[in-house]
Amino acid sequence: MNEATEARPARVLVVDDEPTLLRAMEALLRRKGHEVIGLDSSIAATQRLAQEDFDVALFDIKMPQLSGLELLNAVKHRRPEVEVIMMTGHATVETALAAVRAGAYDYLTKPFEDVEVVARAVAKAAERKMLFDRNRQLESALREREGTPSEGLVGTSAPMREVTRMVEAVAYSATTVLITGESGTGKELVARALHTRSPRRSHPFVALNCGALTETLLESELFGHVKGAFTGAQRDQRGLFDAADGGTIFLDEIGDIPLSTQVRLLRVLQEGEIKRVGSADPVRVDVRVLAATHRDLPKLVKAGRFREDLFYRLNVINIPLPPLRERVEDIPLLAHHFVRRYAERLGKKVRTVAPEALELMCGYRWPGNVRELENAIERAVVLCRGDSVVPGDLPPAVTGRTAPLVREAPASGDEAAWLALSYAAAKEQALRRFEKGYVEALMRACDGNISAAARKAGMDRSNFKRVLRKYRTDVEPDTEEDGSSRALA
């Protein structure tokens, strides 16, 4: 427990029929910054607890009228959120077990070897009570967001308030919107919020990852094709612009589309019509276009890899999404949001996140942004054995539980670190090291060209990009991109 935690003020009730000890504990806890109410009667304590809120209560077990255990049961019945610490000069295993079963947070034996033991116990109990209150606030905030147009856009930080304001401001127009931000920041969630809030909400919302398809397949998916347009086109096929007629189409990774497709997309934006692959006949469509990219489109324009006229057509309204490391205050809310989602989905009784786990999550940079946080919480809920996610449930990257690995077998000096890991954890780290090294070597050999690297690896381009994106946090920010990637550090 650090000093900041120990000094956290709390409202504390101390009940003990020994006046000298009662006064001493009052003085000690006030010096620690707590607001303290001291009583020598358990009956008086029940009255105060019925009328006032407390964070922590300390009860002596042996008292006249009502015993400490009886008082504990009464408190947990009326105010289960109050953290109770039991004190006794006659410690037995039976009384300790009875106190814990009744809901006591801690159990202290008098006389105290060091009065700081009491202060530390109160600090820890106050921290737990603070977590309870914070969870209740987060659950209330999440309930308020349910059913709203911006559901899914979880966050109360200044950057996210600005995103929500932009969504509210432009959702009702038919204007094209370009959503920018790092991978995993939630660009599709913004697109869906724009559609849900718009007059087009009763019509289709169609999403496509443009970087996942070859040029021919991309154009066929977007605009459709006629029979015989290319090998395998055995019948006429409507495209996604047809499917989204009257609604919204979301084009993710717009920076990855080839120049020839950019020309056809520009025609849609300018004329409101498409031509199916293999046909010269125009087809009118009424579709709002939302696009997203993690790339620097102005840089691609200067390099001649993205049409300037298309960029300006897409960038009528720009909604930039902040990386998670720039909205750290949203991490607790997001964490609880995902805990609730996956606990329900997986049938687990996980309700909250322990403060030490939240502290680790708030100190991690989240290179994969909200998507990485969501994956970490899903993993934690699966592994969690209680009702609260603890540090041990989080991925090693978040907790810093890493060990030095070698490329082949560990040297004798590394064996202790190697054997400290489970088989699964060691295998995961070894595979990750291999994967990163292999991708780095391929990208260097192919001068940063993703398509060439994917072919060399014998992988589909979209699958190779998925692997590559795991390591994009190591990308040099000033290295130029192509329809490819940047050099890995």
UniProtKB/TrEMBL annotation:
Alphabetic keyword roster: Activator, ATP-binding, DNA-binding, Nucleotide-binding, Phosphoprotein, Transcription, Transcription regulation
SMART domains: AAA (SM00382), REC (SM00448)
Domain Response regulatory residues, every copy: 11-125
GO annotation, biological process: phosphorelay signal transduction system; regulation of DNA-templated transcription
SUPFAM superfamilies: CheY-like, Homeodomain-like, P-loop containing nucleoside triphosphate hydrolases
Any one GO molecular function term: sequence-specific DNA binding
Domain Sigma-54 factor interaction: 153-382
Residue numbers bearing the 4-aspartylphosphate modification: 60
Protein name stated in the entry: Two component, sigma54 specific, transcriptional regulator, Fis family
Species this chain originates from: Anaeromyxobacter dehalogenans (strain ATCC BAA-258 / DSM 21875 / 2CP-1)
